[in-house]
Automatic annotation (TrEMBL):
Residues 199-346 form the HD/PDEase domain. Residues 20-39 have a biased composition (Pro residues). Gene3D superfamilies: Hypothetical protein af1432 (1.10.3210.10). This is 3'-5' exoribonuclease. Residues 1-39 are annotated as: Disordered. Pfam families: HD (PF01966). Transmembrane segments: none annotated. InterPro entries: HD/PDEase_dom, HD_domain.
Length: 370
């Protein structure tokens, strides 16, 4: 009887009518879903920001660099934008990468090419995007105007960038993504104070020269990993972006006499660019999600290529043991010595003048052998 009662109760329970749950309301349209609105912009560089509190809101105005949606020309330019933000909303800092959403009025202003452009909102990009070429996000005056081996500097970097796999692009970007002043220093600082490439943009030019030459030399070598080699060449001196006091930020660099007037920063005095670069790279890799981070094997190969050098065993360093390490050591020395000799010749130094950086050896530029 009890079993029958339970069975009857179960059948009764199955016959209960469960009230249907009403479907959720449709989501509210986003600002860019409205007719006449443009999709979010590509990443833009925030150069300057001003805001003024007005009750519970803030009136904001910013100077951006990049391409806004609806622009008639694909070339990046400087834009002045304005918007209203809640008083409690966080604002990105100058130098950060941001995106904007445009309404119909802002889109019309962009198409006319007039400033200021009213944007509906502006937000920062906290996550590293490996598809973003960082040299396309900076003003043209951040880059050297002189060509590099017959190529525009931005174009030369784009050629190298296209050969990097996604994980290594993400690693490169992660070093600078949240550190715009570090990127500024990497693009502006010299490669040395009195040795090779001791001039504005010297670090960038030397890094690109090494990467371009390494790509040429290893083109027909199946044993060399092109991605590992190119990233190691681009980043082998990245720590110098934190080594020179006067080049740590645009505000710090105020001496018109050039890099020779600058001394080493505290980090440069105590650690040097090798340890600084290793620290930055390790921190950047640790911040990447597992889906973007380079593998342990890739990371070890890049680290070894950068830090391997010929030194006594008691120093604790390791000699080059991979093709990438040998290629990088060769092109690093080649770029430095050739630039130094060429610059000394242009300064009017006669043949045979000895320079400490050349260890007292005489040098013969190609002009003297013609």
């Amino acid at each position: 009887m009890r079993a029958a009662a339970l069975d009857h109760g179960a059948r009764g329970a199955r016959q209960e009518v469960i009230p249907s749950v009403p479907p959720p309301p449709p989501p509210l349209p986003r600002p860019t879903d409205a007719p006449g609105c443009a999709p979010p912009s590509v990443p833009l560089r925030l150069l300057r920001l001003r805001s003024q509190a007005t009750g519970r809101a803030r009136e904001c105005e910013a100077i951006l660099w990049g391409v806004l949606p609806g622009a008639r020309e694909a070339d990046a330019r400087r834009w002045r934008v304005c918007w209203r933000a809640p008083a409690a909303a966080p604002l990105p800092s100058a130098g950060a990468l941001v995106q904007v959403a445009l309404g119909a009025a802002g889109l019309a202003a962009v198409q006319r090419g007039t400033d200021p452009v009213a944007v509906q909102r502006l937000w920062s990009l906290p996550r590293v995007q490996p598809g973003v070429n960082l040299l396309h996000t900076v003003p043209v005056h951040w880059l050297p105007s002189e060509p590099l081996q017959g190529l525009d500097v931005s174009h030369a970097f784009a050629l190298l960038w296209a050969r990097l796999p996604e994980a290594l692009r993400a690693w490169f970007n992660a070093i600078f993504w949240e550190h715009p002043q570090r990127l500024w220093a990497f693009l502006h600082a010299p490669a040395s104070l009195a040795h090779h490439h001791a001039c504005r943009h010297g670090l960038l030019r030397h890094s690109l020269e090494c990467a371009l030459q390494a790509a040429r030399l290893s083109r027909s070598d199946p044993e060399a990993d092109p991605g590992v080699l190119l990233l190691a060449a681009l980043l082998h001196d990245v720590g110098k972006a934190g080594e020179y006091e006067a080049w740590l930020s645009p505000r710090a660099h105020a001496d018109p006499r050039g890099p020779q007037s600058a001394g080493l920063s505290l980090r440069g005095e105590l650690l040097g660019h090798r340890l600084t670069g290793l620290e930055w790279m390790a921190q950047a890799r640790a911040r990447l999600p597992a889906t973007l981070a380079p593998s342990e094997a890739q990371a070890l190969a890049v680290y070894h290529a950068i830090h391997a050098c010929h030194a006594p065993a008691w120093v604790g360093l390791r000699s080059p043991r991979t093709p990438e390490a040998h290629y990088l050591a060769s092109v690093d020395a080649l770029s430095g010595h050739l630039e130094l000799m060429e610059r000394l010749w242009r300064q009017g130094r006669a043949q045979g003048v000895r320079h400490p950086a050349l260890q007292g050896r005489q040098y013969w530029p190609r002009h003297t052998l013609a």
